[in-house]
Amino acid sequence: MGLTERECWFWLCSRPWLGVRSINKLLGYFKTAKNIYYGRNVQYAEIQGLKENIRRKLADPSEKDENLLKKDIQRLETLGGRFVGRIDEKYPEKLRHIYDAPAGLFYYGNLPDSKRPTIAIVGAREASGYGLASARYFAGALSEMGIDVISGLARGIDGEAHRGALQEEENRETENGINRGKTWGVLGCGLNICYPRENYGLFEEMKFRGGILSEYGLDVKPEPWRFPMRNRIISGLSDGILVIEARERSGALITAEMGLEQGKNIYALPGRFNDPLSQGCHRLIQSGAKLVFKPEDIGEDYGISGYDLKSEQGKTKLSLDNSEQLVYASLSLSPKDVDTISAQCGLTISETWKVLVNLELKGWIRPMGKNLYIRNI
After folding, report:
1. Global model pTM greater than 0.90
2. What's the pLDDT tens digit per position in 8-63?
3. I need a labelling partner for 194 at 20 to 30 A (CA). Which of 40, 48, 116, 314 fits?
4. Following DSSP, what letter does each residue of 209-270 receive, concatenated?
5. Spatial CB neighbours of 331, under 8 Å, sequence gap ≥ 6
6. Would you tell me which CATH number, out of the four given (1.10.10.10, 3.30.70.270, 1.10.760.10, 3.40.50.1110), belongs to the domain 312-375?
7. Residue 322 neighbours by CB distance under 10 Å
């Protein structure tokens, strides 16, 4: 009976030794994945530019165990994952025309909706408190506008961007009638591997509040060279890329450069002039990226206007007493210690602690390390 064309696409995309360029060479010769799977050694030898080790793998019977392949497909489904190949209508349209478009995607949850605007938020793994708070704030605000957020599920800016997009209930409608955006993470490893491990809770939540994507099959390890490759998928799925804190040489800038090549809008959040984490953003701005200092700067490029991010905040602020408003007003997105807050507000240390606890419980502020606080919204 043999395998179906779609099963052969699954096989093609789940071989860790077979990259997208080799897959494209094979498809150029054989035309279909089924022809590749059932190809003969003499045919593999005729393909120009195909490495010898790949020819040997293709000719190895152990790589073409049909029963084992069907077990792999069943295992993915049992884990709650799905597969989509370039032959499928569901394959994301935004990816079809990028350079080295992935031959297929393994995913949890859903695929991004090509009809909704999507912004990639990327930046430093070892970000500052200012950067982390900014990522969370911008992602939350963009999500409120109905804009989807995509990133790489790494520590630092990536993780905070995902958290910001998830900070409200799923599908809650905003006052202007727009469903909140969702969030997607693109992995540089197998779909069933959460890397870094510290984001496991986020990883699990995103399966139901957007999705997790990877071009790699199950169990593929997170090797360093895979992450620059996954960046083309992050940029490819987005309409624009927002960079928050990046050194002059960083993965975030690679994503921005790929986005430029793909014709995407590039945004950068400025920082302090002498901060190494701001140099990448400032370089992008010098090169023509749009400087943003509020989420509306991005929303206006996608026809979203008249959205007052402070409207809800203004209503809620009425519930704060005078001391709480005073302490909140003294805070920003840069961490501030309790002694400084106390001195600026004219409160005792014990009074300051009490107010800080109340503000944190109400969701207005966040702790950032020992005795340090920032605004949450």
Report:
1. no
2. 999 999 999 999 999 999 999 999 999 999 999 999 999 999 999 999 999 999 99
3. 116
4. SEEEEESS-TT----TTHHHHHHHHHHHH-SEEEEES--SSSHHHHHHHHHHHTT-EEEEE-
5. 341, 365, 373, 374, 375
6. 1.10.10.10
7. 7
